[in-house]
Every structure is written in structure tokens, then in C-alpha cells.
Specification:
This protein is α+β, with helices and mostly antiparallel strands. It has helices at about 45-50, 60-70, 80-90, 195-215, 220-235; strands at about 10-25, 30-40, 95-105, 110-115, 115-125, 130-135, 140-155, 180-190, 240-245, 250, 265-270, 275-280. The N and C termini lie far apart (about 55 Å).
């Protein structure tokens, strides 16, 4: 029978590999809580077209590799660990063309007790995560860093006016509103040997500082200002991308109760919401 179709793209891997590593350096402990996703690309065509598994690295093996390499290697950043994992799969299996490693880190901050950082106790509780994506291929490694779930809110110095109005527009202009969003950002490292931890802190600080200080005429304008500040603050990246939902807080009409609402009482809404995205690249 004549073949009627061809496989043009393929990848497979393991997602949701959860890991907590405790590094004990005397009485002082460090903790990293990670979730790892692995995707391999290469010569796996016969598995798809013929059910021939002779070239397949089982996804269970991938999961076990995460644990084993976490034990065997010291790493101070998720980017560095992702590089270790990606290089392993490319070096170990000649038919693997590339390995994509994505890691999310749940952040634990050291407790401060009586003004002193505690040796082995930590506090968490928010949804912010540090992220990275590493693509390892033969002779090349590409690294991205990132932040997800960074929830920020300010109660003034934000407005939205002079937009298009048509027969379906009900939104009223305002020069003073609550601005709330969850910042999701990724940035690109031209060098695979950058100072990943320092860059993460510098970029996060730049994002937070701009959000707080910026007189926002639109979420888009603040997004661009954040990108400019991040590129100025961290010379080791050449591009940063944002996805930022506009999490609306709607002013409640209190006039039926004989009261004025001077930007005090709002109802937060989860959906529908605006979604703003943009990429800023160094010239």
C-alpha cells in the first residue's frame, strides 16, 4: 500500500517531574523545590509509524535521570541544572538531536527570627515561580530565564483614556484606577554562561521598581517601560517578553445607598480579563 502521509515533526518526553533538593552545608541548609519538563527530538520516526521502540528512551528513565543528576551535581540555579540535564541526553544518546528542559522553581525564603536568618527554616505561600528553558543540541545551548505568577497591585497612578469608542463601548474613562496584574516574563541569554542568579534578581527588581513608580497610561505602556528597565539593568540579556493579564477591580456604585464612592470600594473580577503581551529587544 502506498504511503499516504509522512511524519514531519515529533517530540516526546516527561512533564511534571517534581523534586525537592536539600543541600546541607553544616548547620545552614539550602532548599530547592523544582518541577521539570523534558522533551526530546531526534530519530524516533519508526516508533510513530511502525511501533518500533528500539530507539526510545523511556519517559520513566527521564524522570529517574532528573533525580540521579540532582543527587550527583551541585547547582546554584535552575538554569545551570537545566543545562546539565539537556547536555546529558544529547551526549548519552547519539540519535537525540536536541533536548528541551523547562524548570519551574517554587520559591522558599529563609525565615528571619529575632533579626537573624534561620539556618534551616523557610517561608513560602505565594504563586510566584522562577522559570527557565534550556534547549541543548549538538554544539549549542540556548538559555532563557523567567518569572511567572508575580502578582502586583497599586491603588493609584494608573489610568486609561482616549481609546476608541463605538456603539458597543460602555467602559468609562478614568485617570485614577487600581492597576493589578500577574507578571509573566521570559528573557534570553545570548551566552549560555551568564550570571543567572544575579540576572534574575536584577531583572525582578527592575520590573517591581518600574511598576511602583510608573505613571501608567495603559498596561501596554508599563509593560514596555518594564522591558526597557530590565534591558538597561541587565546587560547579559538581549530580549525580554511579557504576558500580563489586566486583572480588573471595578468601582461599585454606592449612590443607591446615599453614599459617594471616592475610589474606595471595588469588586475584583477574575474573568473576563484583558491580556497584554509584548517583546522588547535591545537595539
Amino acid at each position: 500500500m502506498k504511503q499516504m502521509a509522512i511524519l514531519t515533526e515529533n517530540s516526546y518526553g516527561k512533564s511534571g517531574v517534581k523534586l525537592t533538593k536539600v543541600s546541607r552545608r553544616g548547620d545552614v541548609h539550602e532548599v530547592k523545590q523544582l518541577e521539570v519538563a523534558i522533551a526530546l527530538r531526534g530519530e524516533f520516526t519508526k516508533c510513530y509509524t511502525e511501533g518500533d521502540n528500539s530507539m526510545v528512551v523511556p519517559t520513566d528513565t527521564m524522570k529517574n535521570t532528573v533525580y540521579a543528576l540532582a543527587k550527583k551535581n551541585e547547582f546554584d540555579s535552575i538554569e545551570f541544572f537545566a543545562k546539565i540535564l539537556g547536555k546529558h541526553f544529547v551526549d548519552e544518546f547519539s540519535h537525540v538531536a536536541s533536548a528541551t528542559i523547562e524548570i519551574q522553581e517554587t520559591l522558599w525564603n529563609r525565615m528571619v527570627i529575632n533579626g537573624k536568618s534561620h539556618e534551616h527554616s523557610f517561608v513560602g505561600g505565594n504563586d510566584e515561580k522562577r522559570t527557565c528553558k534550556v534547549v541543548a543540541s549538538r554544539g549549542a545551548i540556548h538559555v532563557q530565564g523567567g518569572i511567572s505568577g508575580l502578582a502586583v497591585l497599586k491603588t493609584t497612578r494608573s489610568g486609561f483614556v482616549n481609546y476608541i469608542k463605538d456603539q458597543y463601548t460602555t467602559l468609562k474613562e478614568t485617570t485614577d484606577r487600581i492597576f493589578a496584574t500577574t507578571v509573566n516574563a521570559t528573557w534570553n541569554f545570548p551566552s549560555a554562561d551568564a550570571g543567572f542568579n544575579g540576572c534574575h534578581k536584577t531583572i525582578r527588581d527592575a520590573i517591581v521598581n518600574v511598576f511602583a513608580a510608573h505613571d501608567s497610561l495603559a498596561v501596554q505602556q508599563t509593560l514596555y517601560a518594564m522591558g526597557e528597565a530590565a534591558l538597561a539593568a541587565c546587560k547579559e540579556i538581549d530580549e525580554i517578553s511579557f504576558v500580563m493579564p489586566n486583572q480588573h477591580h471595578l468601582l461599585i456604585n454606592l449612590q443607591p445607598f446615599g453614599m459617594e464612592n471616592s475610589n474606595e470600594i471595588f469588586v475584583p473580577t477574575t474573568e473576563p480579563f484583558g491580556m497584554i503581551a509584548g517583546t522588547i529587544r535591545r537595539k
